[in-house]
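Project outcomes to date are best conveyed with an example. Our students and postdoctoral researchers have been running inverse folding experiments weekly, and each run begins with a structure described purely in tokens. The record below, which covers 187 residues, was selected by the lab manager from last quarter's runs and is presented without edits.
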């Protein structure tokens, strides 16, 4: 076998082409192999896209928040269990879609889908601001419409817009965690 046909990390070594061995430090992550101090990563597909990570982490982090804020919404505590779970799951899916839309808007402005890998402060603030604006707008109309929801007396409310402060707090914490987990996953 000619040197050009060998794996790039084994060119010029005696004994022919050696296969790269799994990296014990990769904790079993698929697609990673190590040969000495070099690490190679095979293309991973959908799971390696920033959008997939924003969507998945957005849903997984929003769902427990939605479940924990049940007492702050009228009728949720006394609603049948399965109905409450469905409402919270739908809300978490909606949160994930808002996060994804905010991500895409920042990516469009930044001209890079990969901004999550090394976010700048203005990208983070843009991501938070877009998500917060969408949420406050949705909450404003939903709490004033027949199709929407109502807050329970336990919900502290912003006096200016009437938006629940627990909801606003969620849109400060969850998006930052989504960025943190997404960035770590995409390394």
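After processing, the design step wrote out the following sequence:
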């Amino acid at each position: 076998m000619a040197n050009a046909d060998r794996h790039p990390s084994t060119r010029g070594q005696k004994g022919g082409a050696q296969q790269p061995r799994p990296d014990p430090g990769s904790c079993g992550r698929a697609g990673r192999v190590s040969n000495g101090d070099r690490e190679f990563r095979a293309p991973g597909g959908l799971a390696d896209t920033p959008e997939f990570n924003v969507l998945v982490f957005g849903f997984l982090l929003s769902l427990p928040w939605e479940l924990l804020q049940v007492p702050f919404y009228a009728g949720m505590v006394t609603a049948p269990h399965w109905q409450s779970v469905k409402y919270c799951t739908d809300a978490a899916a909606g949160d994930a879609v808002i996060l994804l839309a905010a991500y895409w808007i920042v990516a469009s402005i930044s001209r890079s889908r990969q901004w999550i890998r090394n976010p700048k402060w203005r990208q983070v603030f843009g991501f938070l601001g877009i998500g917060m604006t969408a949420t406050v707008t949705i909450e404003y109309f939903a709490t004033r419409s027949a199709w929407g929801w109502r807050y329970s007396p336990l919900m502290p409310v912003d006096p200016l817009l009437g938006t629940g402060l627990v909801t606003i707090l969620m849109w400060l914490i969850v998006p930052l965690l989504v960025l943190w987990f997404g960035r770590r996953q995409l390394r």
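The mean pLDDT is 84. Helices lie at 50-68, 81-110, 121-142, 165-185. The training component of this project remains on track.
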